[in-house]
Design brief:
Elements (H helix, E strand, L loop, with lengths): L6 E3 L10 E3 L2 E3 L4 H13 L3 E5 L5 H12 L5 E6 L6 H6 L3 E4 L3 E2 L4 E2 L1 H7 L5 E5 L4 H8 L8 E5 L5 H8 L11 H10 L2 E3 L2 H6 L2 E6 L1
Parallel strand pairs: 4-5, 4-9, 5-6, 9-10
Antiparallel strand pairs: 1-2, 2-3, 7-8, 10-12, 11-12
């Protein structure tokens, strides 16, 4: 089970320090993200996770720990454009970390490997946490199946909500909002999932119907 005592470091928003840590592994997430994602994975039991933006790797590792704890055989494929020594540990744990820019042009297209990964049978979760969350969400949402989930980090529904309810309170970064993804949401029949829980984790979460 998730244990909040395993959050060993919390973000210092007064210093614009985004790093938290779970069992000593640093992640650019606010502390609410850990329990939210644990509950999310426990509820939907995905067959695979596609992550855009491995970053320090701490959150990728946390996802793997959650899947192991929940006895899930979830495959995790994570893309990053810069290699780090910490990725060796992730690979030893069975996480597929690839150093590659999968997007072409102005996020007009994506390479075939992540599309093929998404479209395998079973539930896929897509996590957009790379350099341009809006572009990642709008493009990858075209390729998810009915019953799949797509999420993006650094989210608030609009600028006013971010400034009044989030900024310097539980997160300092706002990179995606509803107006950025409204067309993709309509075109791909995406619907909110665990909306209240993910709001405090500063992620948007949608499921395809």
């Amino acid at each position: 089970m998730f244990n909040p005592e395993n959050i060993t470091r919390r973000s210092n928003l007064e210093l614009d320090d985004s790093l938290s840590a779970y069992q000593g592994h640093a992640a650019q997430q606010n502390p609410w993200a850990y329990e939210t994602f644990y509950n999310f994975l426990e509820k939907i039991k995905p067959d695979r996770i596609l992550e855009i933006g491995t970053a320090s790797g701490g959150f990728t590792l946390f996802l793997k720990l959650c899947c192991n704890d929940l006895d899930l055989k979830t495959e995790i494929l994570s893309y990053e454009i810069y290699d780090r020594p910490s990725y060796d540990e992730l690979k030893k744990l069975g996480i597929d970390v690839r150093i590659e820019n999968i997007f072409e042009g102005n996020y007009n297209s994506v390479s075939s490997e992540p599309i093929n990964f998404i479209q395998q049978e079973g539930i896929t979760v897509v996590l957009c946490d790379g350099g341009w969350k809006t572009g990642e969400f709008n493009l990858l949402s075209k390729h998810i199946k009915i019953g799949d989930y797509i999420l993006a980090h650094d989210y608030a529904s609009n600028k006013e909500v971010f400034e009044n309810e989030i900024n310097k309170i539980f997160w300092n970064w706002h990179e995606i909002q509803d107006s950025d993804i409204e067309n993709a949401v309509k075109e791909n029949n995406l619907h909110p999932f665990m909306e209240n829980e993910f709001k405090k984790a500063v992620w948007v979460c949608k499921v395809k119907h």
